[in-house]
Specification:
The chain is mostly beta strands. It has a single domain (42-79, 90-246), classed as Jelly Rolls, CATH 2.60.120. It has helices spanning 16-20, 61-71, 100-108, 112-117; strands at residues 45-48, 52-55, 77-78, 90-91, 93-98, 129-132, 135-141, 146-150, 156-160, 166-178, 187-188, 191-194, 205-207, 214-218, 225-228, 231-233, 236-246. A hairpin with a 5-residue loop joins strand 9 and strand 10. The longest helix has 11 residues, at 61-71. The protein is globular and about 45 Å long. The protein starts with 15 loop residues before the first helix and ends with a strand. The structure holds 2-oxoglutaric acid (AKG) and fe (ii) ion. 2-oxoglutaric acid (AKG) is lined by residues 9, 139, 147, 152, 174, 176, 191, 226, 228, 238, 240. Residues 131-247 form the Fe2OG dioxygenase domain. Residues 1-28 are annotated as: Disordered. It comes from Staphylotrichum tortipilum. Keywords: Dioxygenase, Iron, Metal-binding, Oxidoreductase. InterPro entries: Oxoglu/Fe-dep_dioxygenase_dom, P4HA-like, Pro_4_hyd_alph, Pro_4_hyd_alph_FE2OG_OXY.
Length: 247
């Protein structure tokens, strides 16, 4: 695919307040992080040098189960089948909310902050990481659903700190937290990267789902072409946000 005709992920939706003309949607009562996190020593593991890093067992299996039961009750919306020009075809059910508190909790109450800022990987992120994008996206892919090949954009965002300060940031890496896998009956759904901008099976790097694994991949101008492969049985559940660095 030519770089100038890059297929992008659909843009983040406007906040609920702008979309509906009402007050921003109430934050869900996300389940507590129990047992307390992290449950394992979170050692970032590089899958593609400087581009893809994973943290295995970031969420224990029991917590993934609690989250899937909870997320199932949220008002997920099935994407319309036909993407706008230049946008990737995404066929899944999705819930999206701007939730600063949950983004802060994921960052500070899980061991993620320490793992991301640890000196072995701290230089990867393209600046000083200050937190996660409050734009939280939940995806459910059932049999037949997928996210076609695309690139993720970098976005400018303002982060609110606990102390009330506003910090201008830019997103640099995508964060995907897988809540299900083959162990839970989900077949397919791998996240597949194409390092040379073409969808070549010979060059693909397919990351299999692992329950509780967190994956980070570089996005913006040198994002790798990637896709969420079709799920053929069971359900793939993902929490998506992004790393934010100071701008
Ligand atoms: O679900 C996946 O494996 C990929 C998701 C993705 O590419 C995205 O959220 O931009
Ligand atoms: Fe993506």
């Amino acid at each position: 695919m030519a770089k100038d005709k890059r297929s992008k992920a659909p843009p983040p939706a406007a906040p609920a307040s702008a979309a509906t003309g009402t007050a921003a949607a109430a934050s869900p009562s996300w389940p507590p992080f129990k047992p307390s996190l992290p449950v394992v020593d979170l050692t970032p593991e590089s899958l593609v040098q400087d581009k893809v890093v994973v943290l295995r067992s970031f969420f224990p299996r029991s917590l993934c189960r609690d989250y899937v039961s909870f997320l199932r009750e949220l008002p997920l919306i099935t994407t319309p089948g036909k993407p706008k020009r230049g946008e990737a075809l995404r066929v899944n059910d999705r819930f999206q909310i701007s939730d600063t508190r949950f983004a802060n909790r994921l960052w500070t109450e899980t061991g993620l902050k320490e793992a991301v800022l640890s000196k072995d990987v701290a230089q990867l992120w393209g600046g000083e990481v200050v937190g996660l994008n409050p734009n939280i996206r939940i995806y459910r892919y059932s049999a037949g659903q997928f996210f076609d090949a695309h690139y993720d954009d970098s976005n400018s965002v303002t982060l609110k700190t606990e102390a009330g300060a506003q910090v201008p940031v830019v997103t640099t890496w995508t964060l995907l937290l897988y809540l299900t896998s083959a162990a839970d009956g989900c077949v397919g759904g791998e996240t597949v990267f194409y390092p040379h901008d073409r969808r070549s099976p010979k060059e693909e790097i397919a990351v299999s789902l692992e329950t509780g694994m967190l994956l980070l991949h570089k996005h913006g101008h040198d994002c790798m072409l990637h896709e969420g492969r079709e799920v053929t049985a069971g359900e793939k559940w993902v929490i998506r946000t992004d790393l934010c660095v100071k701008r």
